[in-house]
Amino acid sequence: MEEFNISRLNTRLGIVKLTGATSLDEQTNQQHITVHQLEIMGCDGWVELDVNHDQSKKMLKRLHSEIIAHLGL
């Protein structure tokens, strides 16, 4: 696993920042992302989201390709 910290990422769903780790699934040869902390830019600053909440999980799934591209994987 390789840790990452993205301090600001402009996405189609808004501006986010996140920390987590990546790992390579050797069977499928695909990158797997585990997010430890997720925040989105709100009207008054950063709003922390619960990464275990269903909506946050859906959001992360939709952002997977943008995160992978940003990390250069």
What features would you describe in this structure?
The protein has 73 residues and is of the alpha+beta class. It has one helix spanning 54-71; strands spanning 2-11, 14-25, 30-42, 45-49. It is globular. 12% of the residues are buried.
Question: Topology of this protein?
Answer:
Elements: E1 2-11, E2 14-25, E3 30-42, E4 45-49, H1 54-71
Short characterization:
By secondary structure, the protein is an alpha+beta fold. 25% of the residues lie in helices and 55% in strands.
Give the amount of beta strand, in percent.
over 45%
The pLDDT mean sits at 94
- Approximately how much helix is present in the residues? 10-25%
Q: Segments where pLDDT lies below 50 for 5+ residues?
A: none
* Straight-line distance between termini: 13 Å
Quantity of strands, as a count: 4
Q: Rg to the nearest angstrom?
A: 12 Å
Shape: globular
Sheet with most strands: 4 strands, antiparallel
Give the ordered list of helices and strands: EEEEH
Number of helices, counting only DSSP H or I runs of 4 residues or more: 1
Please state the structural category. alpha+beta
Neighbour order of strands in the largest sheet: 1-2-3-4
Keywords:
globular; alpha+beta; 73 residues; 55% strand; 4 strands; 1 helix; four-stranded antiparallel beta sheet
